[in-house]
Automatic annotation (TrEMBL):
Signal peptide: none
GO cellular component: extracellular region
The organism's taxonomic lineage, starting at the top: Eukaryota, Metazoa, Chordata, Craniata, Vertebrata
Annotated GO MF terms: carbohydrate binding
Location(s) in or outside the cell: Secreted
Family recorded in the similarity comment: Belongs to the FAM3 family.
InterPro entries: FAM3 (IPR039220), ILEI/PANDER_dom (IPR039477), ILEI_FAM3C (IPR039475)
Main localization category: secreted
UniProt domain ILEI/PANDER: residue ranges: 61-148
Swiss-Prot/TrEMBL keywords: Disulfide bond, Lectin, Secreted, Signal
Descriptive protein name: ILEI/PANDER domain-containing protein
Amino acid sequence: MKPKFKTATTASVPKCRLSRLCPPQHFALHIRSGAANVVGPNICFDGKIIMSHVLNNVGPGLNIVVVNGESGVVEKSHYLDMNAGNPEDILAYLKEIKPGMIVLVASFDDVTKKMTDEMREIFVGMGSALIKSVKHRDSWVFAGRAGAKSKSLFEKQAAHDEKTNIYEGWPEMVEVAGCFPRNQTDRLTD
């Protein structure tokens, strides 16, 4: 008599600390802003931490991950120094992001010192509804798509307010998490 063996099935585990699995054609993401100017932000995409304080690849300003919206391949990740950076270089970096790219952003420290209206408009073109209201020392996280026609569901802001700040002179950290859809060409502009 042959022994019967049960085959082990590998249960899928949700990525990026989500509570559930993402449906097909979606990527898991979890973005957390920095806390004050002390604890750096964290950006997880499709199960991999791309930027974090522990990886020592975050900095003051806008921490950005640019992902191919179809394949899910991380094209680049960088922080744009909004305190001491050159505004022309920051603008050029943002303008290089091609339509269809998924853009993940987490603030750390103050993001407004070098922020221009033109930079804000680029984020609006990625689906941001809050970037125009981001002020000095606000916490802000965002996931959008370059060339998007609709507003992103993945955006949160905590306003700097001396009466409600959690950290001395700084608002709470904010985070967004969920399942971001792969590119859908009908939702992109030309």
